[in-house]
Amino acid sequence: MSSTGVAAEVELAIGGMTCASCAARIEKKLNRMEGVTATVNYATEKAKVSYGGDVSVRDLIGTVEATGYTAREPAPVRVPAESGDGDTVDADDELRPLRERLVTAVVLAVPVVAMAMVPALQFEYWQWLSLTLAAPVVTYAAWPFHKAAFTNARHGAATMDTLISVGTLAAFLWSLWALFFGTAGMPGMTHPFELTIARSDGAGNIYLEAAAGVTAFILAGRYFEARSKRTAGAALKALLELGAKDVTLLRADGSEQTVPTSELKAGDRFLVRPGEKIATDGTVVEGSSAVDASMLTGESVPVEVAPGDAVTGATLNAGGRLVVEATRVGADTQLARMARLVEDAQNGKAAAQRLADRISGGFVPIVIALALGTLGFWLGNGAGLTAAFTAAVAVLIIACPCALGLATPTALMVGTGRGAQLGILIKGPEVLESTREVDTIVLDKTGTVTTGHMTLLAVHTADGTDEAEVLRLAGALEHASEHPIARAVAQGALEKTGSLPAPEDFANVPGLGVRGIVDGHAVLVGRERLLADWAMELPAGLSAARTASEAAGRTAIAVAWDGEARAVLEVADAVKETSAEAITRLRALGLRPILLTGDNRAVAESVAREVGIAPEDVIAEVLPEEKAGIVKRLQDEGRSVAMVGDGVNDAAALAQADLGLAMGTGTDAAIEAGDLTLVRGDLRAAADAIRLARKTLGTIRSNLFWAFAYNVAALPLAAAGLLNPMIAGAAMAFSSVFVVGNSLRLRSFQATR
Predict the structure, then answer these.
(1) Confidence of residue 139 (pLDDT cuts 50, 70, 90)
(2) Rounded Cα gap, residues 729 and 242, in angstroms
């Protein structure tokens, strides 16, 4: 884009960041560009940038590079080969240089630290051996810190690398001066390991163990942090790798051809054999099978599919042979949309993290000033140059803002990734804040609490009439009709009888029902008025059943043959088996469930009774355009409202709600309007989603607390001379690893079953 003036978005992969202050600095530089709004994420090493006017992607990359870092547009996600080692090799290549420097640092630093700590190991000229071992650690192993510090200094900036570089070089150069010009190079000079500022013997002390030990500890922290960050993002990587790599395409002449999945186009028909993954979203046109969708929805029970049923790409055909017509391919598939939602969420920032980033951005200059102040304070109080220097170096080393920068991104990476594995998609960190506040949850009835399609619920028979015979005759007649109620009766009959005879002389009676001949019987199925037109009436028992059925909000259908009323069938939009349990779980989370529907009140209250919602919490006979108004009214009453829906008519209400939960089985409009998407059509997933979101938010807050607490507690100790620089380095490295490790605990989150 150049001068069109139209806003565009790009995601840049950022290289060279070593701490949260690096991310804050890049973000600040990008946001200074006219028409640019940028968010830089240290954990994911990405920048999400919205730009317009005369700004181009090349300009954005140039700004990042001028700041001292690298930037590029990420390459398309590459699905690894069947061997599974494609991406692993790349990831190992990225970590190899860091691992080599870490191994070098540890091997050489251990004897240096040991000689400094154990007087028995301090033989004649041991100081010179320490120098020989420490020099490669401070130069080669610590080179990334020095290089980054120099690059930042050229741009007038300071980061965590500046603190590490200045601290380790100061300790090393001090030791060189002491060895060559002080008393430390003399034979027999001892160097007891001390943790306080009590040493004040001038230039006699060396700090090679601090320079080498700090480098080793920080490299170890960075290495394990990098590995943990890779683990944190593993769920998204696994999600992207779910899809089938090849597909058996069915040509117009009936031949089969195996092609890469990327060559599929909407409208193509392809074959899915038992045990194979379905290549893309589509509709079954031939065959029937059980499809295992657990990798996308988290639901372990396979779903039966038949011609006309929709199937999702990356799910597993667990049963028979299927022929599927592709409806969505590439970036339009449900799998690709899920991946985009998860990645967008991981790139976001919570309000608390933005505060942490601002603190990290100005933290390094403050620390350098504090270190100089510490040095001056102890010198002014007569503690001696050695003690003052020790305290100043400890301040430089201990003050790592990395943990602050990792607090939110790592928790988001793990939480959203785990959610994707369970069929729960969280749109962004702002959503997490909403889940903590909501106290009311509004539930759309049709398709959310109920199945969304008519179902045969009960069969009431007259005395002496066989239920199986009722279903066989009524089902056969209804099977010839396209009416939703007729389809419900026919499907229920098929499930219970297995097969149905073909009707003869079939006729539809508009507004009343159907009639025809089945196995020689003259059969009527429909409203009671249809029977009256043929001089028949329901006996008392069946009439009572019809009255009770209609009072419960269900549709009652009369069945008669050979001039006599034989049965009443109950048909309704059935409540999902898990809805009552879901309502119980939502109440346990402190939420008040409200049922919202356009159906009449009798139907709504019947469903509410079945799932455990109080009559006063039922809002019925609401027009589609009024749903958002109902949510607004509840908000005006002081409630924080969550909304669960699945249809186009729910989109406005989902957008109006403080928290919108869209059923993934519903329409694209509803999913787009929701804050959380529940891939499987199980209302229990709503409770799981809120639990996971709250747990992720809790992890972010605990990460931020400990990161702040670490710096608040450690800096005064270091300034007071109560921390040896080497111990400070270990503590700093541990703080980052602790934050990442705390986030990784979210991987153990389990959906309730």
Answers:
(1) very high
(2) 41
